[in-house]
Amino acid sequence: MTEPTPAFARATDAHELEEGTVLAPRFDANGLITCVAVDAATNEILMLAHMNAEALSLTMATGEAHYYSRSRKALWKKGETSGHTQKVSEIRIDCDQDAVIIKVTMGGTGAACHTGRRSCFYRTIPLGAPASADTKLAFTGDEPRFDPKAVYGKHEH
Amino acid sequence: MTEPTPAFARATDAHELEEGTVLAPRFDANGLITCVAVDAATNEILMLAHMNAEALSLTMATGEAHYYSRSRKALWKKGETSGHTQKVSEIRIDCDQDAVIIKVTMGGTGAACHTGRRSCFYRTIPLGAPASADTKLAFTGDEPRFDPKAVYGKHEH
């Protein structure tokens, strides 16, 4: 994409940022905000990624989720490699405007995670003891729906 | 709190990180991971915040949400000022172990946001046009449940 970087408003004070109706996202030092993608029907969290100004604007304009890949340092249309697109039905922003939620309907197999699973959050951390080097995760049973090696030449997410 | 910083394992490769059962969180350059708190009953996203190693370990050990405040540069037990505690029933970690979800039951009025609202995500960004300096947010109807000025001497979140 070669569109110009969109211009966003800047909030002049905390009250305007939190209680106002002007979109004034606070991109971090790397030009990013956090985005959480949730299933539009169930609210299940599917993945967490980042957007730069261009990715947010393209998501708004097209209704298809776009992100910025920190590892590849590039704009990334979700599903462009794998077919696991995300059709966006709602975007929400938080109180201090540095994080967004997108409510999405998955394309493809319904798997949002590059490992082939529906959600990236497929393991639990145990409760009841402090963390240690021996803390073990448990799988939730969210099994891969596709073989990542067959779909990706390299890591998408 | 004056507990020693907990020791976490480090994953030695991507496969172990993504498919293994060892908790090996990837804290960022500031020592933080992202945490999304969701309502345990409805999956509604309540807030997004950050945890350092100590906050994650205390959350695991106590079942009460702890965060790290970037603005105050301090460990923060959710609800210690306002009574809006978060009882944690599940913690999940994502594929590359740099983000967690906590499923919580809110204390107090049920408001997770420092503005008094249930969720920090109380405004929507419009779809159908690219971003501009004139983009207007819409409120979802998540009305404040308490008066933040009466509860906080200063900004908790």
Automatic annotation (TrEMBL), chains A, B:
Reaction equations catalysed: 1-(5-phospho-beta-D-ribosyl)-ATP + H2O = 1-(5-phospho-beta-D-ribosyl)-5'-AMP + diphosphate + H(+); 1-(5-phospho-beta-D-ribosyl)-5'-AMP + H2O = 1-(5-phospho-beta-D-ribosyl)-5-[(5-phospho-beta-D-ribosylamino)methylideneamino]imidazole-4-carboxamide
Compartment(s): Cytoplasm
Positions annotated to bind Zn(2+): C95, C113, C120
Cofactor binding, note field: Binds 1 zinc ion per subunit.
Binding site for Mg(2+): D94, D96, D98
The entry's keywords: Amino-acid biosynthesis, Cytoplasm, Histidine biosynthesis, Hydrolase, Magnesium, Metal-binding, Zinc
GO term, biological process aspect, one: L-histidine biosynthetic process
Cofactor(s) recorded in Swiss-Prot or TrEMBL: Zn(2+); Mg(2+)
Record domain Phosphoribosyl-AMP cyclohydrolase: where: 47-122
UniProt-listed InterPro entries: PRA-CH, PRib_AMP_CycHydrolase_dom, PRib_AMP_CycHydrolase_sf
Domain of life: Bacteria
UniProt function note: Catalyzes the hydrolysis of the adenine ring of phosphoribosyl-AMP.
Similarity comment text for this entry: In the C-terminal section; belongs to the PRA-PH family.
Subunit structure comment from the entry: Homodimer.
Protein's recorded name: Phosphoribosyl-AMP cyclohydrolase
Gene of this entry: hisI
